[in-house]
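thought: fold this chain, then report.
action: predict
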Amino acid sequence: MALTRAARGVEGLIERAFRREGRPMLKAYRGYAEPGGLVLQGRVVSAVRRAAPEADQTRWTNFRQMLSLFLTSEVRDVRVRAEGVEALSDAEGYVRLHVPRAPDHAGWVHVAAELAEGGDDPVPMPVLVPQAEARFGVISDIDDTVLRTGAHSLLRNLWTTFTGNALTREVFDDAIALMRRLHEGGRNPVYYVSSSPWNLFAFLEKIFDRAGLVPGPMFLRDLGVSDRGLIGAGHGDHKGASIDAILGATPGLRFWLIGDTGQKDALVYRDAVARHPGRIGGVILRQASGRVSARTRAAMDEIGAGGVPVAVVASFDDLGAAVLPGDQEGEGDMSSYFDALETRSRDQRAAAQLEALNAQLARNGQQAVADLAELAALPVLRKSDLVARQAGQPPFGGLPVSNLAHVFQSPGPIYEPGGTSHDWWRMGRFLHACGIGAGDIVQNCFGYHLTPAGMIFENGARAVGAAVLPAGTGQTELQARAARDVGVTAYAGTPDYLKVILEKADALGYALGITRAAVGGGALFPSLRQWYADRGIACLQCYATADLGNVAYESAAMEGMILDEGVIVEIVTPGTGDPVPEGEVGEVVVTTLNPDYPLIRFATGDLSAVMPGESPCGRTNTRIKGWMGRADQTTKIKGMFVRPEQVAELVARHAEVARARVVASRDGETDVMTVRIETEAADAAAYEKSIAEILKLRGAVELVPLGGLPRDGLVIEDARSYD
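observation:
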C-alpha cells in the first residue's frame, strides 16, 4: 500500500507538470450494446494532443508524438448526458452511459452526447448493435494478433510502440482477411480486447482504418495507479473481465476467440471456456515467437479436452476448416466464402496475380512484366483475331492448350477447349455465393450442344458438391415434371427461362421446391428478379463467356459484380488497349490465369465500368457494374464503315488530342459525319486531312474543351433515327 501511495503521488506530480488547461471536451470511444440498452464510452479531457504523422518522419519525432498521447489532461466530475441519461466522469476522466436501445437499432448506430454544462456541440458516440441474424461473434486480441508489436518482449514492445506511427505500424494481411471472413459482410459482430491503454485508442483507430481492418468496440485499460497495482488491472484480469462483459452483453451468441502465443491469451481463453460452457465455439492462436511455451500448450490441451476446437498457426491463412465457424454451425455452407482468396488484401492479390500472369506470359512465349500496370502495353486479342488464328492453326490458333477434355464451338466459329478438373471454369465461386452446395439438386438449363455453357455450370456444381439435372433447353413440360419428381432445389440458366418453367408448373399443378437461381447469358431485369423473390427464389447473376469462363458475379449484397479470383480485368477505351480511369465506361478486356488456356488481354466486346470500394459482403476484389452494352460500335456512314480502331488512330496521330468521338447524323436523307475532338487547340481545319486519310470520309470538325466529351464508353455515336 505504501508503494501504491507513493506511485499515486508521483503520478499526480507528472500530471500537474504536463497538464494543459482548457475547456473540457468529450472524446468518443466505440461502445457496445447489451440487452437492455446501449453502452456509450468516452473520456472528458481539457486538451487533445494531435499530430499528423508522416511515413518518413524520424523515430525521435515518432517518440515525441507517442509520448504526448500518454500526457493526458483528463477532467473528473464532469456531467455528460445523452438520451436523457447523465453520468459523471471518474478520476481519470472516463465516462460510461447506459442509454435506451431502440427496437430497430442494428449495426453501427450513433448517439449524440454532450457535456451538461458549457460544452461544445454534441459528439456522436458510435455503438455496435449486433444484427438479429448474427450467427456468432468474434473477440480478438490486438498486439501480435492483428498488429505486429512484439508484446512478448517488453523491450521490443516499447521500441515498436514508441518509435513507429500510425502510417508505419504493420497490420497482418492474414488477420485482415480472417476478420473479414468471420465478419461475413457485417452479419457477425467483432470486438477487440487488449491490454493497451485507452490513450492509444485514436492511434489504433487510425491504424485499423488505414489497413481496412473490420471495426469493432475496443476494450482497453487505464494506464495509471489503482488499488490493484501500478497500471490498473493485470493482463489476464483485464482480458478475462472484458470477455465476461461481452458475453454478458450478447446472451445466446457463441464466440470465437482469437489471440497469439506470445503472452497469456491461451490461459485467459482457457479460463473463459471454463466460466462460459457452451459459449465458446473455437480458439485460434497465432504463433508469435519461435516456440510455444509449456503453459500455453497445457492450456490449449485443456481447451481441446473441453470440446472446443483450438488451433495454433504461423499464419491465419493456414487455418483448417475444423476450427472455423462454418463447420460448427451446420448451416449447409462451410463458410460464407468459397475460399480465402476472396478476402485477400489488395497487395496479396496483386502479388499473386503478377506471379500467375508471368507464368501465363511464359507459356505464350512472351516476356515477363515487372508490374501489373505493364499489362496495358501488351497487344489486345480480339475475337476476330482469334478466328483468323484458328483458321490458320486449327483448332486453337496455336495457343498452348493443355489438359484437354472437350472441344466446344461458339459463333464465329471459335473453338474453345474445356477441362474437367476441379472448377476448371471457376463457376463454383459464383454458385457458392448463390448459396448452392452439398444437398442441392441443380436443374441446369444451359445448352449442352456444341457450346460450353452447360458444361461450365455442371463443372461448377460439382465444385460445390451439388447434384445436377442436365436439362438443357426446351421441352418445358418435361422440365417442370422433372423438377418436381427429383426435388430440384436450384436453377441454372438464362434469366427468363426459369419463369417459363415455373408458369408451366403452375398450369400443370406442380409444386416446385426451387429456392435459388444462378443465371447468366442475358439481362436480369429488376422486375424479373422481384418476380422470383416474391416466389421465395433468390436470384443472382454472373458475367461469363465461352472463351473465359466466369469473369464476375453477384453476391447476396447485390451491389455490383465481383471479379473472379482467376482473371485480371481491365476496362479500356473501345478500339484501343488504353485503360480508362475508374468509373468510366469502357470495353472489358480479360486475362485469364487458367494455365490450361492462357488468353492474354482478350477483348470481350462488352462495355462495363469499375465501381469504387468493396462489396458489403466482405469480398475484397474489384467490382464492375455488369454488362452495359457492346463495345463494337462499327457504324456505316455514307456507305463506308467507320471503326473504333480508326478513331483511336486519329487520336494517336495528334499528341494534343485527348479524345475524339464520331457522330453520325442526318441532314434530310443524307448522312452527315461530325468529328468532335477534345483538345486545347483552336484550329479545327488542322485535323481535316487526318480525318480524310484515316476515316476515308470528310466531315465537320467540332473542337470541345478538355473534359467536354462524355465518359460513357462511346467513340462512335449513331444519332440517326431509323423510325
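thought: worth noting. The first strand starts at residue 25 and ends at 34.
final: C-alpha cells above.
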